[in-house]
Recover the amino acids of this structure.
């Protein structure tokens, strides 16, 4: 162990306290602690920015495969035609302004033993700490026949971008009187209220432009997020237009035939005009390949820090992680990015990590002026992230029009602010 | 590093660790960061949610306590405020008050 006393004291000087669990991270004179972040979405973007905020002495490299990030939150409004695809697209200049080195490349390999990641572009990056925020992938064989080619015919639109545009285009070209089928996945999956907000948004578009059409939600579950509020909203604004079929009512989609446009369940076959297939999910491929996942397909972590329980100095945040009671949402990922940044910065600078605090706030729009929400404040209890008793919960079932309109306003405000929090 | 230095470093670490216990519990900054998702980076809002950066600590504290006790109506803040202890509310209020506009 090559601890240099002068460096150690210097670290103490800037610290409010020393880690009670061990020595702070000490680097050789003249070098900075290197953190590599994989993925520039809600989780990774936040972690990169807040690492720099916690300690400008940390060298942060953010590796993202795309030049831009398309936000899944508010992508349903692109599908309904309420906003443009450009309005959910964000670049990384703001992050660069905070001193984050942004690399456009795809990580193909994580070597946790050598603490190195390799990219498709042939580059290699050494790290002291690695943050992995890769999002979700679709479970192989989750829906029979739903391969890359099928996705071009029956878009999932569950990763925003071209898929979002494709689903929008299909709705635009659909005839009045057509059927839109949304296949909702089993738990756990990215954005639990997402498919049901989407149904409302699609119905919003159809009710104005193709009022004879129908939306059928085919569900792999028997209940869903914000169910009471969504159901009441569907009845209020889209009566008779949205139908929900639970798993118990043969709602679970098992397979597709993209050539014929057929959607298959256990007992039936459907040929909707537009099929939006949201398949069963697991952590993104890079997390699976790096051995960060367990049998569940998701990444177990120390829920205090988000350090992987399978690889030291590797932190997994966002949808890919198993984060106790937190849902897989953009706000969760944002909150987790801050916790992981605090944990890493504490190690680097030799301070004790503050007690972690976690929040989820999630809005859904039933119409552009009618919003509902779910929120929760979480804390760590016996190593598990749990909701604070008596806190959080849903918008009330009975609320004035003004309240719903205010929540719609706050939903948009949420979007502008969380984006600025990450990319600004 | 000599053994002597290791010893003194450990001693120092022990001393500092005992201060952690005193300062332990709520970190206004760590809690405050979780608010930024809705209230904007450093509490500067770009939308309908109010900016909270640099507001007086007593104002923020009173607002949060009133949300918590349902004395002050809100769409979502009543649900959020119930997630925090009074100590945490004080800590986060002081954090946002300390940010200069």
């Amino acid at each position: 162990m090559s601890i240099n006393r002068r460096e150690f004291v210097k670290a103490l000087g800037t610290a409010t306290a020393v880690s009670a669990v061990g020595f702070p991270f000490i680097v050789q004179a003249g070098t900075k602690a290197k953190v590599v972040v994989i993925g520039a979405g809600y989780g990774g973007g936040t972690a990169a920015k807040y690492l720099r905020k916690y300690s400008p002495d940390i060298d942060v490299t953010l590796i993202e495969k795309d030049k831009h990030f398309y936000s899944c939150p508010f992508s349903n409004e692109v599908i309904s035609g309420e906003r443009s695809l450009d309005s959910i697209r964000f670049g990384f200049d703001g992050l660069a302004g905070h001193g984050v080195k942004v690399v456009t490349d795809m990580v193909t390999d994580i070597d946790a033993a050598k603490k190195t990641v390799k990219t498709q572009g042939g580059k290699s990056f050494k790290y002291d700490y690695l943050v992995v925020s890769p999002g979700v992938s679709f479970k192989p064989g989750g829906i029979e026949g739903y391969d890359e080619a099928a996705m071009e015919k029956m878009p999932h639109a569950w990763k925003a971008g071209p898929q979002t545009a494709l689903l929008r285009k299909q709705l635009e070209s659909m005839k009045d009187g057509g059927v839109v089928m949304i296949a909702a996945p089993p738990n756990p999956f990215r954005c639990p209220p997402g498919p049901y907000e989407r149904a409302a948004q699609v119905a919003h578009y159809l009710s104005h432009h193709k009022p004879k059409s129908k939306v059928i939600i085919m569900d792999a579950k028997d209940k869903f997020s914000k169910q009471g509020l969504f159901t009441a909203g569907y009845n209020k604004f889209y009566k008779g237009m949205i139908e929900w079929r639970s798993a118990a009512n043969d709602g679970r989609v098992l397979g597709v035939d993209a050539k014929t446009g057929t959607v298959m369940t256990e007992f039936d076959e459907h040929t909707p005009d537009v099929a939006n297939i949201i398949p069963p999910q697991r952590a993104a491929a890079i997390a699976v390949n790096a051995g960060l996942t367990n049998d569940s397909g998701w990444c177990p972590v120390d829920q205090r820090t988000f350090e992987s329980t399978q690889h030291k100095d590797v932190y997994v945040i966002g949808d890919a992680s198993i984060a106790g009671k937190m849902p897989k949402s953009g706000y969760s990922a944002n909150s987790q990015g801050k916790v992981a940044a605090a944990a890493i910065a504490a190690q680097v600078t030799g301070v004790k990590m503050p007690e972690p605090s976690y929040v989820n706030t999630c809005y859904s729009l039933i119409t552009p002026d009618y919003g509902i929400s779910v929120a929760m404040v979480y804390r760590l209890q016996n190593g598990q992230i749990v909701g604070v008793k008596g806190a959080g919960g849903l918008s009330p079932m009975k609320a004035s029009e003004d309240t719903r309109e205010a929540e719609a306003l706050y939903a948009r405000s949420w979007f502008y602010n969380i984006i600025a929090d990450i990319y600004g | 590093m000599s053994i002597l230095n290791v010893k003194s470093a450990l001693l120092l670490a022990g001393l500092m660790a005992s201060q952690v216990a005193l300062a332990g519990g709520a970190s206004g900054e760590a809690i405050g960061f979780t608010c930024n998702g809705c209230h904007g980076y450093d509490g500067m809002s770009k939308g309908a949610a109010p900016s909270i950066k640099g507001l007086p600590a007593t104002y923020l504290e009173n607002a949060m306590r009133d949300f918590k006790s349902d004395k002050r109506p809100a769409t979502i803040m009543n649900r959020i405020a119930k997630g925090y202890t009074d100590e945490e509310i004080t800590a986060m209020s002081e954090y946002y008050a300390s940010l200069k506009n």
Q: What stands out?
A: Residues 5-135+284-423 of chain A form a domain with the FAD/NAD(P)-binding domain fold (CATH 3.50.50.60). Chain A has two domains: 5-135+284-423, 148-279. Residues 401-423 of chain A form the longest helix (23 residues).
